[in-house]
Design goal:
Number of domains of chain B: 1
Strand order of the largest sheet of chain B: 1-4
Largest interface: A-B, 26 and 14 residues
Oligomer: heterodimer
Strand order of the largest sheet of chain A: 3-2-4-5-7-6-14
Number of strands of chain A: 17
CATH topology of the largest domain in chain A: Rossmann fold
Number of helices of chain B: 2
Shape of chain B: elongated
CATH class of chain B: Alpha Beta
Largest sheet of chain B: 2 strands, antiparallel
Order of helices and strands of chain A: EHEHEHEHEHEHEEHEEHHEEHEEHEHEHE
Number of strands of chain B: 4
Chain lengths: 406, 89
Amino acid sequence: MMAEQQVLALNGDEAVALAVKQCNVDVVAAYPITPQTIIVERFSEYVHDGEVKTKFIRVESEHSALSACVGAAAAGARAFTATAANGLALMHEIVYIAASLRTPVVMAIVNRALSGPINIHCDHADSMAERDSGWVQLYTEDAQEAYDTVIQAFRIAEHPDVQLPVMVMLDGFLVSHTLQNVKVLPDKTVAEFVGQRKPVNIELFGEQVPLMLNPEKPVTFGPLDLYDYYYEHKMQQIHAMTKVPEVVRQVHDEYAKISGRSYGDGILQPYMMEDAEIALVGLSSTMGTVRTMVDKLRDRGIKAGALRIKMFRPFPHKQVAETLQNVKAVGVLDRSASIGAQGGPVFMEVRTALYDLPEKPVTVDFIYGLGGRDAPPTQIEQIFQKLREALEKKPEKTTMYIGVRT
Amino acid sequence: MSSLKAWHEIPIAGVPFVKSEEYRSGDWRTFTPKIDPEKCIKCGFCWIYCPDSSIIWDGETVPKVDLEHCKGCGICAEECPVKAIEMVR
């Protein structure tokens, strides 16, 4: 049943903080200074004002922030943290550990450029550096979607088939610090939707015991695991990741029923793709601009389309290939460079996904917006123009650098 | 240790499912402690200091070494007040 909703003027950070507040999180651990955002600042106000029962742990670094969340989640708590850019880089070691210990932590990442040179603006380099870590990665387009996705993230992470941590991304400044009308659900509706975290059972010494630190039924988290079992434990993570798409879809559909909002199927959001001849594929807030440009090109009779990838990990390669199979020229938007590689991270995934198609479209990577460089509609139009040229003549270079002075 | 299991036969999250007693870490050892019963004063220092509980002691007689778990760190020999323990390669 659809719940009655309130419209609040919130920026992306505040929308995330409010979602976390409504999800009855037991522990939030965070480090407060740059590149931290208003997410935990606003949340700490909820704690101070007694609006939540959450234990807020003030730690000495982002490395400790995520460590505290892993410990809390291992003890059975629902844990959340947020960071950005170099804060995430400092967490790197624990990012992998959180995934391997199967702690269903939810972390909001405000996408900001990694140093150096020092920069605080929108760029996807920070979360892309964690793409192989074993976390589910969901990229959101605006404050509304960030709010909706954080609520869903707890359900996805804690699902018995998944038990993996989830990162929810929102674009630095463009979304995080930009005020937007956000429809919010009543506290009770969200509380019912996310429910209580229930630890899964594991079989240990012939009996079923909860996977959590518990003196009554003790288990050990994080001991040495050598060549005899490390690979098997990695295989379990790989297997759990294959269960994610179905869970993401289910949770997304269930949430759509109470909120009236959906984002494609929760994994991909195609726009005018049914008959598209040229299409741009990308992540996050830029895709709103792309859709506007698709409308303009359609008015001119150009069969343009857009495909926003919401779930980047696990990467929905089959679904991407199916959606793009009849497109003649595919442009990929990468807001980070994988320096020395054939293209940006999104390009490498998309191009690989298309490799098994009988008729492969021309694929071009467009690296844009690094360090928060603006990506205005004129730039998207320019990119579509280059794609149209690629239709005529296959470009010599598969990667183009858009908006850099040459 | 029991025979090696497949990935779907073991608990997730790297939780150990074999008791540490059964995990024979003694084969990492290069140096082995040898206790001289003539010099030993049965003070129990080696039993207290061993980080892997690999000194077996009844509280009265000369302690023994659990060679299935002793990694040969030499702390017992270092702490022995009468130098009754020698580390032998």
